[in-house]
Amino acid sequence: MHRIKSHAHRHQYRSKKRNKAEGERKINVVHVVAREIILWISILDGPGLGMSWFGVPMLKPDCFHRHSESRQLFGRVLKQDPNILAGNMKMVLPSLREKHDEFMLRELVKRWSNHKVMVRWLSRFFHYLDRYFISRRSLPPLREVGLSCFRDLVYQEIKGKVNSAVISLIDREREGEQIDRALLKNVLDIFVEIGLGGMECYENDFEDFLLKDTADYYSIKAQTWILEDSCPDYMLKAEECLKREKDRVAHYLHSSSEQKLLEKVQHELLTQYASQLLEKEHSGCHALLRDDKVEDLSRMYRLFSRITRGLEPVSQIFKQHVTNEGTALVKQAEDAASNKKPEKKDMVGLQEQIFVRKIIELHDKYVAYVTECFQGHTLFHKALKEAFEVFCNKGVSGSSSAELLATFCDNILKKGGSEKLSDEAIEDTLEKVVRLLAYISDKDLFAEFYRKKLARRLLFDKSANDEHERSILTKLKQQCGGQFTSKMEGMVTDLTVARDHQTKFEEFISSHTELNPGIDLAVTVLTTGFWPSYKSFDLNLPSEMVKCVEVFKEFYQTRTKHRKLTWIYSLGTCNISAKFEAKTIELIVTTYQAALLLLFNGADRLSYSEIVTQLNLSDDDVIRLLHSLSCAKYKILNKEPNNKSISPNDVFQFNSKFTDKMRRIKVPLPPVDEKKRVVEDVDKDRRYAIDASIVRIMKSRKVLGHQQLVMECVEQLGRMFKPDFKAIKKRIEDLITRDYLERDKDNPNVYRYLA
């Protein structure tokens, strides 16, 4: 039994010894194979770097089924005599030391390329070791070990020399020389690859030096250019430099350098000299705008948009330039208006039309600048808006900008206006006028003037095209809101309904011949709330007209019984036949003029006082009527005494000897300046608007300080007009007296809402 156990023990011992010997034999065989491979690599590489990896055994999976063999192999790979590795690297370094500049860079690229080939092959030989043993022991991969050797023994010594050579080549390229970009790309890839996945080597050993050199290079260039070149030439050079630096990044620098490099160039060329560049006397931003240098302005935007807050001074210069241009147009229009003789009112009106047209052209020009040169940047939109707000709210020869715009629209939309435009041109012009309206603070004043003129166009059939009327109302509604145009839209609708009423009235007369007054009658029924307010007098109508009124009233009762008609005779027109000695002439006159002329059917002579009594009109209206018929172009009446003024002692008689080459003439009334009344109406509406705003704010807030109430009120009303602080204070006091508000007992600057 003892012998059996001893025999088994000897057998086990011999088996272990045999396995150990077999393992050592396999390792030695692979060791020899690896030496042969390294020798082959050294032949490719030449003496030096190829031998930097001394003999290491090639590993096949059947070489290390046991961990002890793997551990032994790994130790032999990593723990050979370091003097051998250092010696091999000492053979590489002389070949790099003895070369300089571009030749040294080429040698480095060659050595690094061969080293990577060797490391790659060794990684493949020991793939199984790399994949299993090393990963499980958290040991560094063989590739990393191989590259680290190059980094520690070669790269660390020559990096400064390489860095200087590369930057020198880049500077030569900046000066216009041709260089080998592919070589630089390969060299800089070494800085990246040697970091083993990190960018520290590239950034610390190359990029920092490059950025400093770039700053120094362009600092010197900028100092020369700013003194010698004009602003456009300087910007051309700066843009070209930025383009070339970006091109360098694309060709050989690492992409992470692009932003840092461009920022350095921008800082030296633009940030440092931004003010000097913009304010150059004969070529700065002012001069570019003055001379319409669109391409240079576009370049200026592209360059200054790159730097922090670079566009702000450009936008301020743009704003100042536009303000100056607009103010010059206002002054020019003022001078033109003041130089015209008083009797040439038509010419004055024409000058105002020309002024508005020039403002539109100015706006078109600088909107194009904002869109194209400044790429629609919000800073320039704001600058344009603020500039136009300055001069668009200035008046010309006593007329506010709101009135001028309303008159300009009227001239385009009415028949016989001075603006002869196609339908497309009219639409385009109206669109531009509405855009200008955005800059006017007194939009409510424009609305009132426009409504007055719209009423005249609609009532006297002077509107050239209903589609254009509706089109501008749509544009105004989009710009200013539905409340702004609600009354105007109601006026247009009224005219449509009035035409239907007229058709029904004519049918009514046809079916009731006994009611026919013998006179053609057209009545326009209007809704009181939509139309401007007009003076209404109880005019003593001639009997012929009284019958017409009664017939229409009877017809209207058949249409509705809940509405009351108020007759506005001042807006009516009348065609009457006047029999003069020479011939009969048809006179086109107002209802007031017709009533006055018909008085002379019953009397040859009438005094001023008799006319006033019979017509039941105010003295102002009677004077206007008599002046139009006896002192103006068409003297239908003779006046005693024969002078140009109307007085209460005058006597009038029908001028039977009057004649004219035309058989039909229109006798105009002297125009009434409605400007004052429009302004009064707007002021009244503003008082109501301020009252409503204050009550609305206080109703929601209950208690509020004076300053905050005023600011909220201004904010609410700012879309239509800019309320005066004094006016708001006055309305607050009025609301306190009417028990809408009360002052706080402890603090008089605080108001309380009274429900």
Write the layout of secondary structure elements.
Blueprint: H1 2-45, H2 67-78, H3 82-97, H4 101-125, H5 127-136, H6 142-174, H7 181-193, H8 200-228, H9 231-251, H10 258-269, H11 274-278, H12 285-290, H13 294-304, H14 311-339, H15 345-373, H16 378-392, H17 401-413, H18 423-437, H19 443-459, H20 466-480, H21 482-511, H22 543-559, E1 573-579, E2 584-590, H23 591-598, E3 605-607, H24 608-615, H25 619-630, E4 637-640, E5 651-654, E6 664-666, H26 675-701, E7 703-705, H27 706-717, H28 725-737, E8 741-743, E9 750-753
Parallel strand pairs: 2-6
Antiparallel strand pairs: 1-2, 3-5, 4-5, 7-9, 8-9
Helix pairs in contact: 3-4, 3-6, 4-6, 4-7, 6-8, 7-8, 8-10, 9-10, 9-13, 14-15, 14-16, 15-16, 17-18, 17-19, 18-20, 19-21, 19-26, 20-21, 26-27, 26-28
Characteristic key phrases:
28 helices; elongated; 3-stranded mixed β-sheet; mainly alpha; 755 residues; single chain
Short description:
The chain is mainly alpha-helical. The chain has helices at about 1-45, 65-80, 80-95, 100-125, 125-135, 140-175, 180-195, 200-230, 230-250, 260-270, 275-280, 285-290, 295-305, 310-340, 345-375, 380-390, 400-415, 425-435, 445-460, 465-480, 480-510, 545-560, 590-600, 610-615, 620-630, 675-700, 705-715, 725-735, and strands spanning about 575-580, 585-590, 605, 635-640, 650-655, 665, 705, 740-745, 750-755.
